[in-house]
Specification:
This protein has 183 residues and is an alpha/beta fold. It has eight helices and five strands, in the order E-H-E-H-H-H-E-H-E-H-H-E-H. A five-stranded parallel sheet has the order 2-3-1-4-5, sandwiched between helices. It binds shikimate-3-phosphate. Shikimate-3-phosphate is lined by residues 17, 21, 40, 51, 87-89, 126-128. The site of shikimate-3-phosphate (S3P) has 10 residues, from loops.
């Protein structure tokens, strides 16, 4: 993007696995009418391979490169406004954090570890959590990633105790203010 280009007005959801990015993303899509895209799904469409299989066959670094390529595509100058839900580890690469920030208003969704474990325990398609002690793994990954989410985000949103509609309405209000003030 050239420095003279207007700030793209996407809403980008970041946050750890199981923090509600897909659910809140769908609610935002419904309320705002912008289409929802999900970086994991875009990668699967592009490669024809499930995320878990990409991790197993090509490794995490390769997957992060695919995430960067998708972020580049989403930042195309003629791209429509979207709700962009991202994979939980997309912020672990500095380059990806910079790309995310260029895409629009970045919302960091948070949830307590117990809720993350409950939600992510329901399926086994998250390769990084296929371990003997998921709680320990979630806690250590969260500690490592929190500063990265914070660096990428414009706002942090604690989701516990609120339903998806309430959270989405709050996000929309703050996004409107953000875009109107041109920050
Ligand atoms: C990952 C999160 C997943 C997916 C991949 C890696 C991570 O996305 O991108 O399994 O590193 O936290 P969700 O956050 O949508 O589960």
């Amino acid at each position: 993007m050239n420095s003279g280009d207007p700030l793209p007005k996407n809403i980008v959801l970041v946050g750890f696995m199981g923090c509600g990015k897909s659910t809140i993303g769908r609610k935002l899509e419904h309320l705002l009418g912008y289409p929802l895209v999900d970086t994991d799904q875009l990668i699967e469409q592009k490669t024809g391979t499930p995320v878990a299989e990409i991790f197993a066959s090509r490794g995490e670094d390769y997957f992060r490169e695919l995430e960067a390529a998708i972020l580049h595509e989403l930042a195309a100058p003629d791209a429509p406004r979207r709700i962009i839900s991202t994979g939980g580890g997309i912020v672990t690469r500095k380059r990806n954090r910079a790309l995310i920030k260029q895409l629009g208003y970045v919302v960091w969704l948070q949830a307590p570890v117990d809720i993350i474990l409950e939600r992510t325990g329901r399926n086994r398609d998250r390769p990084l959590l296929n371990t003997d002690n998921p709680r320990e793994k979630v806690e250590s990954m969260l500690a490592e990633r929190k500063p990265m989410y914070a660096a990428a985000a414009d706002i942090e949103v604690e989701t516990v105790g609120l339903d998806a509609r309430e959270i989405a309405c709050g996000i929309l209000e703050s996004a409107r203010y953000h875009f109107a003030s041109g920050t």
